[in-house]
């Protein structure tokens, strides 16, 4: 009983670590379950610091998962995006966005090696000491320090500029939705940054752009085409939801397929749209509740 209570105290944190390292809801769920099995098998009194022990265990599991998944992602059809975490709108007193779980940052983390990504997430997001990280990835503390530093430089260089103001972000997404629902092409252009980037993750399972679409006019035309082909008035459901900790959109088509859209917003304009359409990445969502 005591071991169960202790694990439950750590579960949310463990899942957060696992999701940020793997970018996969399914892999994060599997990692937490495996950590629980290992925790159950641990002899009494073996772990003096349960939090540190479980952090090392979940990190090692996810590091191994990420290493084995790397080859598959390199041959993935089209852009690879993380599996979206979709929830109801957050409380109004949350005035800033959690960048560490945002789709834009998780996509940038895909460019890191598994060791760099693990070190960066553990140290910069969860403040795990380097000696503990070293145990998880099988490196020395000095080596891990260098990994985290290198990862930090790459993230700073590659991460898109992004507002952390929830109100500004939400206002841009609401304007985007209003333009789509109203079929207002010019208004859509007004809310898109001139260098906006649209990424579609269909994984070869559904029709999606296999290369990013760049530029406000090209993106707006692409959206018009998507709406024309896939929107059934009165039956297609569009709703605002929290997508990876920020206001986003969920679309559920009457034929059963769905799409989840996350946005990057800077200075009131949408600079990036990430569309997850691969049905394999949406199996964890309750589509009936989103209709």
UniProtKB/TrEMBL annotation:
<dbReference type="InterPro" id="IPR014284">
    <property type="entry name" value="RNA_pol_sigma-70_dom"/>
</dbReference>
<feature type="domain" description="RNA polymerase sigma-70 region 2">
    <location>
        <begin position="8"/>
        <end position="70"/>
    </location>
</feature>
<keyword id="KW-0805">Transcription regulation</keyword>
<comment type="similarity">
    <text>Belongs to the sigma-70 factor family. ECF subfamily.</text>
</comment>
<dbReference type="InterPro" id="IPR032710">
    <property type="entry name" value="NTF2-like_dom_sf"/>
</dbReference>
<keyword id="KW-0804">Transcription</keyword>
<dbReference type="InterPro" id="IPR007627">
    <property type="entry name" value="RNA_pol_sigma70_r2"/>
</dbReference>
<dbReference type="InterPro" id="IPR052704">
    <property type="entry name" value="ECF_Sigma-70_Domain"/>
</dbReference>
<dbReference type="InterPro" id="IPR013324">
    <property type="entry name" value="RNA_pol_sigma_r3/r4-like"/>
</dbReference>
<dbReference type="Pfam" id="PF04542">
    <property type="entry name" value="Sigma70_r2"/>
</dbReference>
<dbReference type="InterPro" id="IPR013249">
    <property type="entry name" value="RNA_pol_sigma70_r4_t2"/>
</dbReference>
<protein>
    <submittedName>
        <fullName>RNA polymerase sigma factor SigJ</fullName>
    </submittedName>
</protein>
<keyword id="KW-0731">Sigma factor</keyword>
<comment type="subunit">
    <text>Interacts transiently with the RNA polymerase catalytic core formed by RpoA, RpoB, RpoC and RpoZ (2 alpha, 1 beta, 1 beta' and 1 omega subunit) to form the RNA polymerase holoenzyme that can initiate transcription.</text>
</comment>
<dbReference type="InterPro" id="IPR013325">
    <property type="entry name" value="RNA_pol_sigma_r2"/>
</dbReference>
<dbReference type="InterPro" id="IPR036388">
    <property type="entry name" value="WH-like_DNA-bd_sf"/>
</dbReference>
<dbReference type="Pfam" id="PF08281">
    <property type="entry name" value="Sigma70_r4_2"/>
</dbReference>
<feature type="domain" description="RNA polymerase sigma factor 70 region 4 type 2">
    <location>
        <begin position="104"/>
        <end position="154"/>
    </location>
</feature>
